[in-house]
């Protein structure tokens, strides 16, 4: 079988190196181009030493015609939001399929995008046909998509943590609390003050209270699952660790529930979904590190439902789920290169 020729944009970043590690072991994918503005001309392995003797392709500036000449069929965009929507339209026009890891095509309504991202959306034409790439919920739409909006790292814990309860209409749909913690790689490799070692080491801090842009992303997906509005209070925290996301979610049941039934609902909802593990033991980020698993644990505490969710922000939260989407789009087994 011919391999699918792939390009990775934003090759010097954290999600890109994680993606390259997975694609290099994918039997049906071949990475033929990696782009970077700052590192163009250097071998990928010079920028990411973990790939020494494994991948020495020189990085290049992004040129859609050059990607077309190389026969690129699938582009993975590992660029910041705001940039993706500038560079992706010509690639789609040239017939390439795109998996965008940024947030640019996740929110269906450009008015909601402008409200939370504080900038106007510049590619509403492609936004209209973008598919939200959360495979456990939207696999059928992902299979036929030309443009997949890879889901955000935090939102996956909130959406998959709550979907079984929202779907079965078992909880109140306002005031759901999602309390999340992330490792520092969640902020990317591009330097910023808050991620300097002396700023974040030995410290835990909250940010984006009431304003974080993942709030509408979580609400949008859960509103589709529940066929009606859902409102969450999402509070992210920065943790002094490299990687991992842990979310503690608090929901109020609409009717009395027993714990056995609750666990059964989760296990049935995720039966046949290879990357969501409903556990009988308490999850931890370490159990999911470097994997595409998202671990869930559910318990009744004083009349409230507590859901714990853990994942690796760079694999399950970004590059692993991107390859899961790639597998669905190109007709490969969903788990290829991910187990
Ligand atoms: N880190 C994470 O855990 C997750 C990240 N994401 C999303 O994935 C995307 C990539 O994230 P991540 O890899 O962490 O980010 P990084 O900051 O690590 O890398 C992004 C890369 O994009 C390139 N870049 C930066 N600014 C521009 C620009 N204005 N124009 C063109 N290229 C630019 C840079 O490469 P160069 O300067 O060499 O061109 C940079 O290395 C982001 O949209 C992020 O929000 C999603 C889920 C999780
Ligand atoms: C720790 C940390 O800073 N995390 C990032 C997560 C961003 C991310 O990767 O999500 P998007 O793809 O939606 O940008 C943040 O809160 O902005």
Task: Provide a descriptive summary of the structure in words.
The protein is an alpha/beta fold and 339 residues long. The protein folds into two domains: 161 residues, Rossmann fold (3-Layer(aba) Sandwich); 160 residues, Dihydrodipicolinate Reductase, domain 2 (2-Layer Sandwich). It is 34% helix and 20% strand. A seven-stranded mixed β-sheet has the order 8-9-7-10-13-12-11. The protein has a six-stranded parallel β-sheet with strand order 2-1-3-4-6-5, sandwiched between helices. Helix 1 packs across helix 13, helix 7 packs parallel to helix 13 and helix 8 runs parallel beside helix 10. The relative contact order is 0.14. The mean pLDDT is 98. The site of NADPH dihydro-nicotinamide-adenine-dinucleotide phosphate (NDP) has 28 residues, from helix 1 and helix 13. NADPH dihydro-nicotinamide-adenine-dinucleotide phosphate binds next to helix 1 and helix 13. This is N-acetyl-gamma-glutamyl-phosphate reductase. InterPro entries: AGPR, AGPR_dimerisation_dom, AGPR_type-1, NAD(P)-bd_dom_sf, Semialdehyde_DH_NAD-bd. Catalyzes the NADPH-dependent reduction of N-acetyl-5-glutamyl phosphate to yield N-acetyl-L-glutamate 5-semialdehyde.
């Amino acid at each position: 079988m011919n391999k699918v020729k792939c390009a990775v944009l934003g090759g010097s970043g954290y999600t890109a190196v994680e993606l390259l590690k997975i694609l290099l072991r994918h039997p049906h994918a071949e990475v033929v181009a990696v782009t970077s503005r700052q590192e163009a001309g250097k071998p990928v392995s010079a920028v990411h030493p973990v790939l020494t003797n494994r991948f020495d392709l020189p990085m290049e500036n992004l040129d859609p015609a050059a990607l077309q000449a190389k026969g690129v069929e699938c582009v993975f965009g590992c660029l910041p939001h705001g940039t993706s929507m500038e560079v992706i339209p010509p690639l789609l026009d040239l017939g390439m399929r795109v998996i965008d890891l940024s947030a640019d095509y996740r929110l269906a309504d450009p008015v909601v995008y402008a409200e939370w991202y504080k900038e106007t959306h510049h590619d509403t034409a492609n936004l209209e046909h973008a598919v939200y790439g959360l495979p456990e919920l939207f696999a059928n739409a992902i299979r036929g998509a030309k443009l997949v909006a890879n889901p955000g790292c935090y939102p996956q814990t909130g959406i998959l943590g709550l979907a079984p309860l929202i779907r079965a209409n078992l909880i109140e749909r306002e005031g759901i609390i999602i309390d999340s913690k992330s490792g520092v790689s969640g902020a990317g490799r591009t330097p910023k003050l808050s991620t300097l070692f002396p700023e974040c080491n030995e410290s835990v801090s909250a940010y984006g209270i009431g304003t974080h842009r993942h709030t509408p992303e979580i609400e949008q997906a859960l509103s589709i699952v529940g066929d009606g509005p859902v409102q969450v209070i999402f509070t992210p925290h920065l943790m002094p660790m490299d990687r991992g996301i842990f979310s503690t979610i608090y929901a109020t049941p609409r009717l009395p529930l027993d714990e056995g039934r609750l666990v059964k609902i989760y296990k049935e909802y995720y039966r046949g979904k290879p990357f969501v593990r409903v556990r009988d033991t308490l999850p931890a980020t370490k159990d999911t590190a470097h994997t595409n698993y998202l671990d869930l644990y559910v318990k009744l505490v004083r009349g409230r439902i507590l859901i714990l969710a853990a994942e690796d922000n760079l694999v399950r939260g970004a590059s692993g789920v991107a390859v899961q989407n790639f597998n669905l789009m190109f007709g490969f087994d969903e788990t290829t290169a991910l187990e």
